[in-house]
Each structure stands twice: as structure tokens, then as C-alpha cells.
Design goal:
The complex is a heterodimer of chains A (about 150) and B (about 110).
Chain A lengths: L7 E6 L5 H11 L7 H23 L7 E8 L3 E7 L26 H8 L2 E4 L5 E7 L11
Antiparallel strand pairs in A: 1-2, 2-3, 3-5, 4-5
Helix pairs in contact in A: 1-2, 2-3
Chain B lengths: L1 E7 L2 E10 L4 H13 L4 E5 L3 E4 L1 H16 L3 E5 L3 H9 L7 E3 L2 H5 L3
Helix pairs in contact in B: 1-2
Classes of the chains: A alpha+beta (about 150), B alpha/beta (about 110).
């Protein structure tokens, strides 16, 4: 796996109550990317929140002895975030499309879908316990244009 | 951040203040199910004061809608901001819910 030189590193407990605070903190540190306000507020926020939720809930199983590490690099053309849990990992290919008629009424399964829809790149490591998210500044998304 | 429940002309209206996320979704679920158990069948969830909904929040809305329908009722949503509407459209949940532009529109004809 590539080595990040993170500008920001967070050590987050496996507690769903910690997710919002962690995401808010990262977004505050991205304030220099003001020109990307809507893509940060919507695309990056959703992506990071979903990655953290998956790590806390499913990766670490809310085990208080386990932590989630978040690394964020704010570059000139993109923001890269890496979210690592201490779980056994999973196969992201096993997650079905939540928008098909058969799955639309299911309560779960939308987190990874939203990450893939809203971010420019979503990569998992081979083990499936570390996801890297990339939001490029020069790309648009449907209605989520730069504000 | 929280949920407030009011009754308007036979409809139970729940305001979501702040965010509907993994950390508070169970609270919303409990409040709605409590009203459903008490006999209410018409529900509007108003998002005019909501900044963000995550996938867990979307999931609890799907779950509640199903439970309400099973009891012969209906759940309508109202006042989604542009970001929230984008999330519903991406996940195609805009096809599952009746989404009104305002609380008044949601209540009309209920």
C-alpha cells in the first residue's frame, strides 16, 4: 500500500458517538479548501462519515479495546483520507447494489454505495480493513457542483 | 440536536433538529414506534432543520416506513435541503417515499 504523509492523524474510539466529532474536526481543518465548499460538505463529509461508521460498527464491532486510525492529506488538487480499523476486514465486492428493486427496501447496505457515488476514488486494501478515499478538486458530480 | 413530536390535525409530525445519524437513529425509531403503538398512523418527518443524514439514518427511515405501512399507515417526508435531496436521489429512496417541499404540502390531503 502507498505511504501517505498525513497532514492530519486521528485516533478514534470504536464508539458511534465519536464519529460526528471526528468528521467535524477533519472538515474544520479543510477550511483552506473553501472553494470546494459543497463537495466538502456533501461528498467528502458523507464519504468520511460512512467509512468511519463501517469501521466502528462492522470492522471493530464497537469493541472498546479497538481503535480506528484516520489519516488525511490535504493536497493542492485533492483530499485523501485513509480509514483503518482493527477488524478482520471484509470483501467490498460482496456488498450488493442497494438501489436495485430487490434491495431498495432493505434498511442497510447504503454506506459503501454512497462512498463510491460521491468520491472520485474508493480503494480497499486486500484485507478489507482499510479504505482510502480521494476527493479531487477539479471534478464535479451531478448536482453536487463546486459552491 | 434532537427530535420533537407534535400533532397537527391527526398527523404526527416529527422535527429532526441537527443530524439523523448512526448515533441517534434509535432515538427517532423509538419515538415513532411509540406513537405507532399508541394508534397513530399518519406521520410526517420534517427535515427543515436537518443538516445531514447518513446511511444509517436513511436505513431507519426505510425501516419505519415499512413498519408504518404494515399497520395501514403512511410516512411522508418534507423539507429536504439540496444535499439531503441528493442523497435520496442517489440511493433512489426518492422513489420509495412521498417527499414534499414543505411541511404544509406534506400535511395537505393527508
Amino acid at each position: 500500500m502507498d505511504t501517505l504523509d498525513p497532514k492530519l492523524v486521528l485516533d478514534v474510539p470504536s464508539d458511534v458517538r465519536a464519529i460526528e466529532e471526528a468528521v467535524d474536526y477533519v472538515l474544520q481543518r479543510c477550511s483552506e479548501c473553501r472553494a470546494q465548499a459543497r463537495r466538502l460538505r456533501l461528498n467528502f463529509r458523507v464519504g468520511l462519515t460512512e467509512a468511519l461508521s463501517n469501521a466502528v460498527l462492522y470492522g471493530n464491532g464497537e469493541d472498546p479495546s479497538k481503535r480506528v486510525r484516520v489519516e488525511v492529506v490535504i493536497g493542492g488538487t485533492a483530499i485523501t483520507a485513509r480509514v483503518m480499523d482493527q477488524g478482520e476486514g471484509f470483501d467490498p465486492r460482496s456488498v450488493p447494489d442497494p438501489t436495485t428493486p430487490d434491495n431498495l427496501c432493505r434498511a442497510g447496505g447504503r454506506g459503501l454505495f454512497l462512498m463510491r457515488q460521491l468520491l472520485d476514488e474508493v480503494h480497499y486494501n486486500d484485507q478489507g480493513n482499510c479504505v482510502t478515499l480521494v476527493l479531487r478538486f477539479d471534478s464535479g458530480f451531478g448536482g453536487a457542483a463546486t459552491a | 440536536m434532537g427530535f420533537s413530536v407534535t400533532k397537527q390535525g391527526g398527523v404526527t409530525v416529527i422535527d429532526v433538529e441537527g443530524q439523523l445519524i448512526v448515533g441517534n437513529r434509535q432515538e427517532l425509531k423509538s419515538k415513532v414506534l411509540e406513537e405507532l403503538d399508541g394508534g397513530d398512523r399518519k406521520f410526517v418527518i420534517d427535515f427543515s432543520r436537518t443538516g445531514y443524514i447518513d446511511s444509517s439514518g436513511l436505513g431507519v427511515l426505510v425501516s419505519l416506513s415499512k413498519k408504518i405501512r404494515e399497520q395501514g399507515g403512511e410516512l411522508r417526508l418534507s423539507s429536504l435541503n439540496e444535499d439531503l435531496r441528493t442523497l435520496f436521489e442517489l440511493t433512489k429512496l426518492d422513489t420509495l417515499f412521498r417527499i414534499a417541499d414543505s411541511r404544509e404540502d406534506a400535511l395537505e390531503g393527508f
